[in-house]
Design brief:
The chain has 3 domains: 178 residues, no CATH class; 100 residues, DNA polymerase, Y-family, little finger domain (Dna Ligase, domain 1, 2-Layer Sandwich), CATH 3.30.1490.100; 88 residues, no CATH class. The protein has 502 residues and is α+β, with helices and mostly antiparallel strands. It contains 14 helices and 17 strands.
């Protein structure tokens, strides 16, 4: 059972308040700037308000208290319609004045006398659908104080441009189809053949059939807190106490809502001034996994500010959390428990503050042919999905077919190589543990080069290194059976031991 409220003479926000007083499950059809219809899920309201007729009277009385008077309103007087489908109740609210209550199974009879123009109104409402309010991340502007009602921004989708006249209405008028009942009597295949999918959709709506499920309005309260300080503070130690005061209530709210923090925004208003007013220092932390422990969140913010400190005292501290559904961790009895996400994140943050962000993370492949090239990406903690793990008993491992593998040295070892007729014949290295002597067999060379177009000039080469490479690679076998990968930098003629075959 659904109830539709249509009151053009009453502000949409006031109609929404009426709907919220009856049920938390309601949806706004249309934007707040136009004539919106508020759709209520009336299922289960009979225990509170009685029958469908009594519920409709309660809704009508609540809207009448907000209207200036039905006599002066005319067609804009509040309307209430109750039916078993969303479409039927909405069309009845748009086309029938006063209160309309339709018993289940009687929707087609109640919709039959309505004008087909209500379908055009219904389509306009669907095209200008207003989304639920969503919180906005801080942009470095004003900060809200703790305890005040959080700021929520309503964003209405922009209606698509429409033709001045509805072509489908004009065609139906020429056919003599002026009511919904006449439209439903037409043959479905012929409607689709002559008017396309839109005509078939109109005929389905005229029968009161729902095209989609109801999407209830959700008031997303932003997880945000701010504190204006009496005296500016400097350093991380006093800031730590302020962050603890802000993050502890936010963590409690996240736990009650079964949410975790996905992104942390820290906005610090400084005492220094710019052309637009006081400077605002903002930092963003992308968390590797949802978490809500206040001590961990505070530690991560402080470690980030230790690496990127503000350049002036702070007088307003603001924290904004972008929430996400919390992850449920269920370990298996067959494997060792992995470290907690909070511990790993804190460790990574401490290492980044100590060694630099570019030296900590997960190695990732770079889109280049340069040998040994890689980059450091952000570390992401992932919990293995045990349902996707395949047993090695039932599946033959690919590693069983490997004949050999190259174990590349992290730093290539300089070596001396004797060349005869363009081929290496002897290797001599001073590094302990490596074989020197004559080469039994050699395969190569494999020449590779790249990034020569980015080579800096003679003056720039001393200041900035070059990513260009030009080298030949050889695989050589020694007397004791060891197989090395030899590399010669062709520009300087320097040989290196790059790896060993296992």
């Amino acid at each position: 059972m659904f109830a539709a409220l249509y009151a053009p003479s009453i502000p949409t926000a006031a109609v929404i308040d009426v709907a919220r007083a009856f049920t938390p499950r309601f949806e706004q059809l249309g934007t707040a700037l136009g004539n919106a219809v508020i759709l209520l899920d009336a299922s289960g309201l009979s225990r509170l308000f009685g029958s469908a007729q009594e519920l409709g009277e309660h809704l009508r009385d609540a809207l009448s208290k907000l209207s200036p008077g039905d006599a002066a309103l005319g067609n804009t007087a509040p309307r209430v319609a109750i039916a078993s489908t969303q479409t039927a109740s909405t069309l009845l609210a748009l086309g029938s004045p006063g209160l309309t209550v339709v018993m289940p199974g009687k929707e087609s009879i109640a919709l039959a006398p309505l004008s087909v123009s209500v379908l055009d109104q219904f389509e306009k409402l669907a095209e200008s659908q207003a989304p639920s309010p969503r919180p906005q991340a801080p942009r470095g502007g004003e900060a809200a104080h703790v305890g005040k009602h959080p700021r929520v921004t309503h964003q209405a989708s922009r209606p698509r441009p429409r033709a001045p006249e509805n072509r489908l209405l004009e065609i139906l008028s020429k056919w003599g189809i002026r009511t919904l009942g006449a439209l439903t009597e037409l043959s479905g295949p012929e409607i689709h053949e002559r008017l396309g999918e839109r005509g078939a959709r109109w005929q389905s709506l005229a029968r009161g059939v729902d095209a989609r499920p109801m999407v209830p309005w959700v008031d997303d309260v932003p997880f945000e807190a701010a504190l204006e300080l009496e005296w500016p503070i400097e350093g991380l130690e006093p800031l730590s106490f302020v962050l603890a005061r802000l993050l502890e209530p936010l963590a409690d709210r996240l736990e009650r809502a079964d949410r975790g923090a996905a992104v942390l925004y820290t906005s610090l208003r400084l005492t220094s001034r710019t052309a637009l007013g006081k400077a605002v220092f903002t930092r963003t932390l992308q968390l590797p996994a949802p978490m809500r422990d206040p001590k961990t969140l505070r530690t991560l913010i402080l470690l980030d500010l230790e690496t990127h400190p503000p350049d002036a005292p702070i007088d307003i501290v603001r924290v904004f959390i972008e929430p996400t559904p919390a992850k449920v961790v269920q370990w298996t009895l067959l494997e060792r428990a992995q470290p907690a996400v909070e511990q790993v994140s804190t460790l990574i943050a401490r290492l980044s503050a100590f060694m630099g962000e570019s030296h900590v993370g997960s190695p990732a492949i770079v889109d280049t042919w340069k040998p040994g090239a890689f980059t450091m990406a952000d570390f992401r903690s992932q919990i293995a999905d045990l349902s996707k793990i395949e047993s090695p008993i039932n599946q033959q491992s690919e590693s069983a077919h490997l004949k050999s593998a190259l174990r590349r040295f992290r730093f290539p070892i300089p070596t001396r190589v004797t060349v005869s007729e363009g081929r290496p014949v002897r290797v001599q290295t001073d590094r302990q543990g490596f074989t020197s002597g004559a080469i039994v067999e050699a395969a190569g060379p494999w020449r590779t080069s790249g990034n020569w177009w980015d080579t800096p000039g003679p003056r720039q080469k001393s200041e900035a290194g070059s990513d260009a490479w030009d080298r030949d690679e050889w695989d050589v076998a020694m007397n004791d059976g060891t197989v090395y990968r030899l590399v010669v930098e062709r520009e300087v003629g320097q040989w290196f031991l790059e790896g060993v075959m296992d």
